[in-house]
Amino acid sequence: MRITKRLLEHRARSAFAVGASALAVLAAAASCTTTSVTTEEASDASVDAEVHEAAIADGAADAGPDAADDVDPMSSDAGPPPVQCEDAACAKSLVLTYGSARGADGSHGFCALLDDATVACWGVNGSGQLARDRAVTRSAVPARVDGLENIVRLSHTCAIDKDGAAWCWGTGPFLQSSTVASSTVWRAVNVDIPTATHVDFLVQGGRAPFGAVGCAILADNQVACWGVNGNGQVHPPALDESATVPNPVTMIDLPEGAPIQDIFVGKATFVLRTDGTLLSWGANPPLGRVSSLFPDPRPKPVALTGISYVDVEAGSVCVVAKGAVHCWGTTDAAASAPARQYALPQRINLPEPAVSVATSPGGYGGPASNPQRGCAVMLSGDVYCWGSNTSGQAGDGTREPPADPVKVKGLPAPASIVRTAALATCALLTTGKVYCWGENGFGELGNGLLQEPSLEPVEVLLP
């Protein structure tokens, strides 16, 4: 499918025109992360999505009858290219690991789903992210997670095997206790949920009671969530609801629509359908849509169509929609102007259509105002990055913050997907090799060396 450049620009202007009136509400309520939803508020807010969609419809009408002739060269339906293994040390998927806190225990590591259906991890292990002995605080040598086999799906430190069983390790809402939302486990444990096809979770450092929530797509294409409900991701919050007591596995009432193909859990939960629509509910921002509820527990569509790829990390979201990358989210300083500025999707200016994208925990912001950053894989297989570059994680061979997205230098083959940790970046190439660059204080580069950063991509020593 294609859209016109003129229409896309008009859509962005229309969405932000509608969003401007809502940002005043964001400013007033951003500090209230657990506001309860009353019947009256739900009724008053029921028109939010319709208003947002109407603005985009108006934009389409204003584009004019000749808009179809204005072909947008950035439009594309292409997804990430497949991986063709060159040898036995081959990865098929790549994810970012989560820790229980920022700094030495945060997102400083990666895991890969290998061609033999096992999982290998490297980087920090302060919260069990590597599923190794707790005496191992970090490792620059990737090693397989014991006990995992026949894995078909990987998300952070959780995996789904061929029988639909969920296995998790590290710190998260792994249903190991009926009274404590988050557990730290140093080996892969079975999560007691129904047979599933996808699983994801968030445990937000420093605010674990609000962030320890998990969701899954079940085998019957239903969605279930569990854990604490501070952001309204499990059910509509009640006035007297505890912010620390975990909820059991609870079915989510989604509006009718196309089948569900993926799920992503951050401060809000996102469900991607096969028709390219994306539903969101939870904290606001990063809902990515206009709403007067804080949080908003109602699954409603984000006002972008044709979405083919999504990455959600805590309060930050990036998507590929018809080849264009859009990002939004919030920082921890939710009441600040930069945080509110990025509450709705903003398009990233890239030189060609994208096929996949990655963002980092902490919220979306420009390179001058926020350490948040992102990277995207282009249709050509090139990787472009933007935002913070203090450790060379943008990949252009410098530590200078780029004013615009910059091309990663030195990748030996086209990329399929990319992942962005706090200070390092890794890309899965179409050959099945993984290359990383940036900081290496916790072994993030996976090349056997510690505390030796690299301004150019180096190969990960996959087992």
Describe, in short, the structure shown.
The chain is mostly beta strands and 463 residues long. The protein has helices at residues 5-29, 39-45, 48-62, 208-211, 337-341; strands spanning 91-96, 109-114, 119-124, 138-144, 151-155, 158-161, 166-172, 183-191, 196-202, 213-218, 223-227, 247-251, 260-265, 268-273, 278-282, 296-301, 307-313, 316-321, 324-329, 346-347, 354-359, 374-378, 383-386, 406-407, 415-420, 424-429, 434-438, 454-459. It has five helices and 28 strands.
Topology:
Blueprint: H1 5-29, H2 39-45, H3 48-62, E1 91-96, E2 109-114, E3 119-124, E4 138-144, E5 151-155, E6 158-161, E7 166-172, E8 183-191, E9 196-202, H4 208-211, E10 213-218, E11 223-227, E12 247-251, E13 260-265, E14 268-273, E15 278-282, E16 296-301, E17 307-313, E18 316-321, E19 324-329, H5 337-341, E20 346-347, E21 354-359, E22 374-378, E23 383-386, E24 406-407, E25 415-420, E26 424-429, E27 434-438, E28 454-459
Antiparallel strand pairs: 1-2, 2-3, 3-4, 5-6, 6-7, 7-8, 9-10, 10-11, 11-12, 13-14, 14-15, 15-16, 17-18, 18-19, 19-20, 21-22, 22-23, 23-24, 25-26, 26-27, 27-28
Helix pairs in contact: 1-3
Structure description:
This protein has 463 residues and is mainly β. The protein has one domain: 7 Propeller (Methylamine Dehydrogenase, Chain H), CATH 2.130.10. Helix content is 12%, strand content 34%. It has 5 helices and 28 strands. The protein has helices at 5-29, 39-45, 48-62, 208-211, 337-341; strands at residues 91-96, 109-114, 119-124, 138-144, 151-155, 158-161, 166-172, 183-191, 196-202, 213-218, 223-227, 247-251, 260-265, 268-273, 278-282, 296-301, 307-313, 316-321, 324-329, 346-347, 354-359, 374-378, 383-386, 406-407, 415-420, 424-429, 434-438, 454-459. It has a 4-stranded antiparallel beta sheet, with no helix packed on it. A hairpin with a 2-residue loop joins strand 13 and strand 14 (268-273). It is globular, with a radius of gyration of 21 Å. The model is unreliable at 1-70, 332-338 and 363-371 (pLDDT under 50).
